[in-house]
Design a protein that fits this description.
single chain; 122 residues; mainly beta; seven-stranded mixed beta sheet; four-stranded antiparallel beta sheet; 48% strand
Amino acid sequence: VQLQASGGGLVEAGGSLTLSCVASGRTFSSYAIGWFRQAPGRKREFVAAVSWSGASTNYADSVKGRFTVSRDNAKTTVNLQMNSLKPEDTAIYYCAGYIQRYYSNIDPPRYWGQGTQVTVSS
């Protein structure tokens, strides 16, 4: 599985960005996809995940109500719509593919894409 994230950039606080993750390789509709982020000097953290069909989603408390994850299996793409961005959302964002169909906070993703930088100015 190869994952390619894009859409990062510089935005003012309160603004919006949409990140995209395009996958290739293994049948896209057979596994969950997650978004993670890592800020300088901090550990990588979970942001959001979507199940194989798109029917089930999970979010970190810090982004609930502001971020929305969705997928289009026909386009092998997962999007992360980020609204009401805050300076603390500044990080490198990564998309990752799980082995299983649903998000798990026990079993980490198997496949990782390269990151895309998101910078939110105050």
